[in-house]
Structures are given as structure tokens and as C-alpha cells.
Amino acid sequence: MKKFFVLLLVLALSAGVCFADGGKLKSPADLKTEKLAAQRGTTGQYIAEDLLGDNKALLLTTYEKYVDAVAALRQGKIRAIVMDEMPAKRFLNEVEGLAIMDEALSSESYAIGFKKGNTELVEQVNKVLAEMKSDGTMSAIFAKYIDGDYSAVKPENIDFNAGAANGKLYVGTEAGFAPYELKVGNGFIGIDVEMCAHIAKKLGKELVIINMNFDALPTAVSTGKVDMICAGMTVTDERKENMDFSDNYVDGVRQVALVRADDYEK
Amino acid sequence: MLWESGFFTAEAWSDFNRRFYQNFIKDDRYMMLVDGLRSTIFMTSGATIIGVIVGLILSVIRVAYKGGVPIPLLNKFAECYITVLRGTPAMVQLLIWNFTIFASARDLNTQYIAILAFGLNSGAYVAEIFRGGIESIDAGQMEAARSLGLTYGSSMRYVILPQALRNVVPMLFNEFIALLKETSIAGYIGIDDLTRAGQNIQALTLEHSQPLVMVAIIYLVIVLLLTRLVRKLEEWLSRGRR
Fold first, then answer.
1. Which of A71, A184, A210 shows the shortest C-beta gap to B208?
2. Dihedral, CA of residue A129, residue A150, residue A96 and residue B193, to nearest 10
3. What is the rounded distance in angstroms from the CA atom of residue A53 to the CA atom of residue A33?
4. Nearest CA to A115 among A13, A251, A261, A246?
5. What is d(CA A229, CA A226) in angstroms, rounded to the nearest whole number?
6. Measured between CA atoms, how close is A134 to chain B, in angstroms?
């Protein structure tokens, strides 16, 4: 009997779905009075906070993982997720019943984050980034991932430069942000991962990826747990106060609203 | 409600199977859970050992001080230790250990930091369990041992502690079952334990419920096995007792 109740509880927990109904959403302007979500510590959260104004305490939910936010969206607990376009597109392709609003909320740039004052490493990395941009390495990496199908990319094919002479390069990331970083089996793939592998090689170091929650990354870099953050991180003035950034490695990253297809009316 | 939603139809079943394949079979993804489980068990075992040692030392200090051994400083330390580590969340302690105390230890396997954090935390709880166990032994036992000429230390070691241990084993095991579940916060410092492995699968397949439910089932099975073990142990320990 006890076992039956345990089973029932597990079922109830996994099937717990709540439904809500509201008006149609047409553009980001409609989101000002809606329940929104974002990943904790991301610019998506800051944009949603600006959008909601005084209502943010009531209407904004932040999640550690995008998968959690998308589950909440599908269950109607929230109306929209503010997030970067490329990961949003992956959800759009692989999860039924979602839509992305045509109009973007903002456009941003990604850069690598460093401990404040670590100018030496910033300069070294900037040099490598410039080389990568001019010799086509960067665009080759992006091309590998941009069409959304990277099931052929295997972690073991990415050279982490093991046993390099100049020691190790510790890079912090949150590997639930495809196509930039994703944990596959015991390894990592993604644009950021391949870029960092290239940077590590140029610096003569072995790449070590440390996978943690996104909101823990600034702490990790400022305490020296990692040498740099490469996690699709947007450069903002606020972050610049506590961290140094490399040159941007990708511009025009659109922040979009991921909504349920039923809710969206173009 | 479940019926109306088509939970038990053939389509739902094939969809379940497809998602099951995606989540666990394709590219040997179940291995992520196996590795996660290994990490969870490794951390729990390590923390258990540290917890027992620390707990035993702390409880003996406190009981000995109460029994007249002049170690006020040690006793104060033990009291503070127990107060602080029981009075703050394990999660906060874990973050402090990783990002403040061991901020510069980068080559050190993060799992060792977690073992230390969980072990020292558990030690505080174990200390109270042991203390309760020791104090539950009749005072006459100690008096009898002392009157036979044993020193305080020997009386403790050969007479009191063996009996106390027998009393506290069930509670001790419950503490470690709790510890096993507590290690699920290790993902916060970047350890791919069982819970985090489930989240990693979620990030891969973008599917929410199956990986989490699977993780829950694995925890449950292990806890049930351990509970059964405790019961057997209890029976064994109470042999010959009236």
C-alpha cells in the first residue's frame, strides 16, 4: 500500500500541470504586464526587469536552467522567456508549440570576461581573437553550428591541447546554452568551447572547462577559480564595473521573446 | 484528468518510448547518469567517513568536559563548531568552501572540496547523535568501569562507546541517507552529480520531465536499499538483547 502511494506521488509530481489563459501577445510591448521569465544573471533578466518596471517583483521569475523556464512556459506558468535568439531557435525547432516574436527586444555583443585588472591575459586573448577573425577560423567555427544541426560534432574531436607546456587555461561556462556550449557525454561542444580550445592552443595552454551555473560565473572569475568566462556573456556597463572584457567575438545577438505559439498573434 | 489528456493511449506510449530513447539510450546518454551516480556515491561515502570521525571527536570532547575532564577551550570550540555548521545551510557552506576558502585551489578536484564541506557539515549533526547515544548509557556503567580501576579514557573507549555506538547506528544511517540527498546541491560548484547529470541530459534533449523523474527514481531506489540495510543492521545489533 505504501509503495502504491509513493508511486502515485511520483506520478502526480511529474504530471502536475497548471493552465492559465490570457489575451494574445503581438509584440514585446505587450509583455509589460505579463508573467515573464529569464535565466538568472543573464541580460534577459535585466531586459525583462526594465520591461516590467515596478511589477518585476510580482511578474518576473528567474530560473537556473533554460529547460526549466521552457517547461514553465509550456505549462502556462509564465507567458514569455526573454533570451538570446540562437538558443531560443533551438527550443523552437525541438519543442512543439513555441514561437519567437519577430521584433527583438535588444541587440547585444558577446565577449570573454576576465578578473578585473587581468590586463595581460585580456591582451593575449584579444590578439588571438583578432587573428581568428582575420584568418577565417572564427567564421569556420560559427558555420559549423549556425544551421542548428551539430549532432555530428563530437567532444573528442575538439583538441583541448592536453599536456601543454604553459600550464592550464581554466574557462568557466554554463553548458546548457547551445550552440555556444553544451555538455555531451563527458565532454563539451559548442562555439565558445571550440573558440576557447583555439585560444588555449595559441597560448600554449591546456583548456579546462569548468561547468557551473551562470550566476556563479562572475564570482568564479573574480575569486580566481577560473581564468576567464566564455559563456555567451553580453558586455554590459554593470558587468564592466566588476570584470574586464575582451573584444566582442560576436555582434548583433538579438534578445528575443520566446512565447507559446497559441499566444502569439503576428 | 490523466485519462482525458490521452496519457494512456498508444500514441502517448510511443511518444514516451521515443523520448525515452532520446533521453537515455541515444549516444549512451544513460552513462551520464551512471557517472553522476558514481560521483554522488563517491561524495557521500567520503563525507560519511569525515562526518563520523569529526562527529566522534566533537561528541567525546563535549561529553568528557561534562564528565569533569578540564578541557574548557576544546569544549567551547566544539560548541561553536556545532552551532555554526548546524545553523547555516549546507548550500551556503558549500559555496563558501568552494569560492572563498578554496578560491585559489584550481587543480584540486572539486569533488574533494564537496566531500570536505559535506563531511564537516555532517560531522556537526553526527556529533549530536553520538552525544545523545553516549548520554543514554547509564551513569552506573562509567562509575563501575572507573571503580574497576580503568582511566576515564579507557572507560570511554572500552565500556561506553561500544554500547553507545550500538544505540546510534540507526540514527547514523538516517543521517547518511539525508547526506546522500543533500549532495544534490553539488551542481552549484560545478560537480556533475546525479542531479546535475539529469540537468545535463535536459539541456541536451530539451525535455523536462523524464530525466528528472529518472533521477528521482534512482535516488529513491538507493534510499530504499539503504533503509533495508539499516533495518537488517538493527536486527543484527539487537540480537541477544532483551
1. A71
2. -80
3. 9
4. A246
5. 7
6. 32
> Cα separation of A219 and A228, whole Å?
11
**Residue A252 CA to chain centroid, in angstroms?**
15
Using alpha carbons only, how large is chain A's radius of gyration in Å? 20
HEC assignment per residue over B121-171:
HHHHHHHHHHHHHHHCCCHHHHHHHHHCCCCHHHHHHHHHHHHHHHHHHHH
DSSP H or E run through A114: strand A113-115
| Nearest-by-Cβ selection for B203 from A11, A15, A175 | A175
Q: Which helix (H) or strand (E) holds B228?
A: helix B209-237
Chain B residues in contact with A70 (beta carbon < 8 A): 206, 208
Strand order in the sheet with A206-211: A206-211, A168-173, A228-229, A113-115, A243-245
Q: How far apart are CA A195 and CA A128, in angstroms?
A: 10
| Min distance A16 CA to chain B CA atoms (Å) | 10
DSSP line for B9-32: SHHHHHHHHHHHIIIIIGGGTHHH
Give the helix/strand (H/E) hosting B181. helix B161-182
DSSP code for A190:
S
Backbone angles phi, psi at A178, to 5 degrees: -65, 145
Cβ partners under 8 Å of residue B21, min gap 6:
none
Tens-of-pLDDT digits for all 266 residues of chain A? 667 777 776 666 555 443 444 688 999 999 999 999 999 989 999 999 999 999 999 999 999 899 999 999 999 999 999 999 988 998 998 888 999 999 999 999 999 999 999 999 999 999 999 999 999 999 999 999 877 778 788 999 999 999 999 999 999 999 989 899 999 988 999 999 999 999 999 999 999 999 988 998 999 999 889 999 999 999 999 999 999 999 999 998 999 999 999 999 88
Task: Nearest by CB to B103, from A70, A95, A225: name it.
Answer: A225
Which residues, at least 6 apart from B122, have a Cβ–Cβ distance to it below 8 Å?
A: B47, B48, B50, B51, B54, B55, B175, B176, B179
Q: Which residues of B touch A211 (CB under 8 A)?
A: 190, 192
Q: What is the spatial distance between Cα A226 and Cα A230, in angstroms, rounded to a whole number?
A: 10
Give the helix/strand (H/E) hosting A193. Answer: helix A191-202
CA distances to A15, A20, A25, B1 from B7, in Å: 10, 20, 30, 9
Q: Which residue has the cell 494512456?
A: B8
Are the CB atoms for A60 and A38 separated by under 8 Å?
yes
**Contact at 8 Å (CB) between A47 and A107?**
no
- d(C-alpha A128, C-alpha A131), whole Å: 5
SS3 A191: helix
Query: What single string gives the DSSP state of each residue in B63-119?
Result: HHHHTT---HHHHHHHHHHHHHHHHS-HHHHHHHIIIIITTT--SS-HHHHHHHHHH
ipTM of model over 0.90? no
Whole-model pTM: value is 0.83
